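Notebook entry, cofactor series.
This is the third protein in the set we're modelling with a bound small molecule. For this one the ligand is pyridoxal-5'-phosphate. I'm keeping the input format identical across the series so the outputs can be compared line by line later. Sequence and SMILES below, as received.
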Amino acid sequence: MSQYFVNQLTSEEINEKIRGYSSWIEIDLDAITHNLEQVRERTENRPVIPCVKSNAYGHGVVPVVAHMMEQGVEMVLVAKLYEAMQLRDAGLDVGIVSIDPLFSDTDYAKVVEQDITQTIYQPEPARRLNAAAEKAGKVTPVWVKVDTGLGRVGVGWSEAVDFIKKIDDYPHLGLTGIFSTMSEADELDRKQVQRILDIEKECKKQGIDVGVKSIASSNAVFHKPYTYLDATRPGLMLMGFYPEDDDTGQGIELKQSLCWKARIEHVKWIEEGEALTYSRRFVAPKRMKVGTVHIGYYDGFPRGLTKKGKVRVGDQIKDVLGTVSVNHFLVDLTDTDHEIGDVVEAISREGENNALNVANLAGIMTYSLGNGLHMLLPRVYYRNGKSVALTSPRLVE
Ligand SMILES: Cc1ncc(COP(=O)(O)O)c(C=O)c1O
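Returned structure with ligand:
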């Protein structure tokens, strides 16, 4: 077991803390192992470079990466330099590709010092990074991002060979990979892959080894085997969230790792005709038992679930009543014996309120659902059904 999991509270201490929480997220790390294995199987055991951007899509970047390292992951991709620093601060000696653009000398120096593989695609950042590495007496690893058609970031594919030659000439930059992002448009996807292959071929002719070639994220892992190249970079699917409805039934069976729990803070009975929440958005059709749950859209429970949400109460699926507000939503507790302090599942691992169904109900993508989960919610990590880690960056403990 890695040092990260050794240095945690005991399971009993974690469970005791949970008893005091009004809401928390549970992550089943074994599900992430399963999803990683599914990807490896589909991609014929190519290296997987998990994308763990946006706090591992709300799952918590440090414990997720610590766990992945134990499953043989050697490199991850982050979107923010602070995510890379979180990993280093936690003592995780994993390869890190960062796509965060750099603007200050301090950050150039940090990237070099922390052995972070910086994404490069413009001349001036290349010059500054080389200068920072020279100052530190190092050769710092870089990946060149190529825009093969998405039109977001990267050196244009037709200028990529010239740019790579310039990178290769810098004595303190070490090119270890080239990568691109798919446009996820059938008519362009094959061309994009071909552009990467052509760039590699031309560089090889000129005596330059481009290193790892990578273009596939979750969508391509599901649907486009010709994109796998040397390494894939899936993100969301490793957490067990299907990005889109048509990703199900593709021979990759994901296990959702996340479950979001919250406690009922108030219970009351209301009479037929009584109204609840802002703008009287819910009017009781009969006498009902109603619970108030202490999460709202501040926490990441989408406001789009107003009058539509479904949550798990015991073994039943129950309706969200009226408006989802900043810190609360109301739930129908009629025909349940649930009381104050009992737990409801805002997002369950399976069934009618799993992540994909909740996102669909709210009219958002599973990406937004995961990304929207508040950073400060406590997260509890499980292996073999036992709590093994807790992150609780609450302002007051
Ligand atoms: C550069 C890069 N690679 C990989 C991914 C992973 O994408 P997904 O979560 O769809 O697998 C992303 C996500 O946005 C990305 O920006």
